[in-house]
Amino acid sequence: MGFWQRLLQLDRKWIFLGIAIVVIIPLIKPLGLPIKPTKPVQDLFNYIDTLGPQSDAIFLVCDFDPSLMPELMPMIQSILRHCLTKGVPVILHGGLYPAYIGIAKMAIDEVAAEFPEKKSGEDYVFLGFIPGVTAVILAIGIDIASTFKTDYYGVPIDSLPMMYGIKNYSDISLVVDISGSSSPESWLMYGQERYSVNVGLGCTAVSAPSYYAFLQSGQFVGMMGGMKGAAEYEELLARKGYPAGKRPATTGMDSQSFAHLLIILLVILGNIGYFVVRRAERKAGMERRKR
Amino acid sequence: MKKRVPLLITFITGFIVIVSFFVPHRPFGALETETLIWYSIILGFTLLIGVDSLVRLHTRQIRRKKKGWWYSIVFFAGFFYCLTIGIISLIRTPNPFQPGTVFFYGYETILIPLQSTMFALLAFFVASASYRAFRARNLDATLLLITAVIVMIGRVPAGHKLWTRLPGIANWVFDVLQMGPMRGIMIGVALGAVAMSLRLILGIERTYLS
């Protein structure tokens, strides 16, 4: 058996080992590869950056489960940091499905600890889960207080100082949906089309291509796609001198870079092997026929 | 009667939702609010139906000792564990997701690592599958392969290090190349959804009644 044939039959355990190495080493020792922010992320950042304490609130939605934390958690935390730094009132919604609320709780706990002067109910509001999915999106357009009744901690929404002037979408400058599902389309259909609220988006790298059409049409204010988008947002925060936390997405991009390079190398090797072996087989076949 | 009543309910609710979407004024606006409350209540019951269906399915699997029946025991262990700690946490605190509750402890130490592990495994299998299956066998496959390589390398910082124009090319693939087919698919799906909704509202599509 030749070299290429052996290579084509390589045990997948070696591939797994290679991936593990290229992912783990940059996580332990980050290389700090440069992050260049792209237009969709820059647009979202700029939109939030123009807001201030007197602006309408940001409605930040945590619509993903634990499996997507590495990609999407840095997004939600970066936006929370951005809003709290700028003093923009931010309403964090624990998601349209029950499994997401724990993630939102973890996100707000970590970021709020970095801003001890910011108080729940005064500078930010954390809303829990209520069933309904699209019905919740529509109901927020009518009245937030009657939809949720209390915040996550059980405090009536009417009694929260930050919510005094906030009734529905007309008092919200932007909805940012950090999502691992198709919920951004629901926010567009029921939130934007019906109530004309601006919508921004954070999504996984896999689902990003399906949202470019909405981005080009201007229906989304901006978009963070995958860990790359989160890293770009962290980079923009750092460039402005805002707190950016430990920048987990930026660190993760080093690993992702090397994982992609390894996969490309494997694909190239696999194709060379495929053509070399195919050529050798054809040649052997022709020789057999000649005999 | 068994069929007419559900068809009538579908027609009336569908009609109210459509009209109230375009006419948010009285009486349709108030009707929409009422419909949303009903929707939330019904959705709560559908969760119960889901639980009932799961429990029935796994009970049947165990009773008939079907292949992999012991996975059903794992299901019941997980199900009763979540149910028990959820109720305990709910009695002790108003919210089971409060840090320090048994439920949140289970969420943090079991659900998060399990889901993260499942998703992380994808990286290994994608690498292995790409190596074995991504072959330039014909022109279509070659074009797909070249595009995939450009996007994969252009979307990471290493791509910019290798060639500064690579991220721009990857973005062009996203902004231009993939947009046409994607728009076509989306418009097709939307038209299909509208057609199916109309069929349901008008009672032409009745498979959901069986």
Radius of gyration of chain B: 26 Å
The pLDDT mean of chain A sits at 92
Quaternary? heterodimer
Strands of the largest sheet of chain A, in order across it? 3-2-1-4-5-6
The backbone outline of chain B, from C-alpha atoms, is extended
**What is the CATH third-level topology name of the largest domain in chain A?**
Rossmann fold
The count of domains of chain A is 2
What's the N-to-C terminus distance of chain B?
A: 14 Å
Q: Specify the CATH architecture of the largest domain in chain A.
A: 3-Layer(aba) Sandwich
- What is the total tally of β strands of chain A? 6
- Overall body shape of chain A: elongated
- Kindly report how far apart the N and C termini of chain A lie: 23 Å
Main sheet summary of chain B: none
Walk me through the structure:
The complex is a heterodimer of chains A (291) and B (210). Chain A is an alpha/beta fold. Chain A folds into two domains: 3-28 and 255-290; 39-246, Rossmann fold (3-Layer(aba) Sandwich), CATH 3.40.50. Chain A is 53% helix and 12% strand. Chain A has eleven helices and six strands. Chain A has a six-stranded parallel β-sheet with strand order 3-2-1-4-5-6, sandwiched between helices. Chain A is elongated and about 90 Å long. With 210 residues, chain B is an all-alpha fold. Chain B has eight helices and no strands. In chain B, helix 1 (4-22) crosses helix 2 and helix 5 (139-154) packs across helix 7 (166-177). The longest helix of chain B has 36 residues, at 28-63. The two termini of chain B are 14 Å apart. The chains are: A alpha/beta (291), B mainly alpha (210).
Provide the fold topology.
The complex is a heterodimer of chains A (291) and B (210).
Chain A lengths: L2 H6 L3 H17 L10 H11 L7 E7 L5 H18 L3 E4 L7 H14 L9 E4 L6 H7 L3 H5 L23 E8 L3 H13 L3 E5 L8 H5 L3 E6 H14 L8 H43 L1
Parallel strand pairs in A: 1-2, 1-4, 2-3, 4-5, 5-6
Chain B lengths: L3 H19 L5 H36 L5 H24 L9 H32 L5 H16 L2 H6 L3 H12 L1 H23 L9
Helix pairs in contact in B: 1-2, 2-3, 5-7
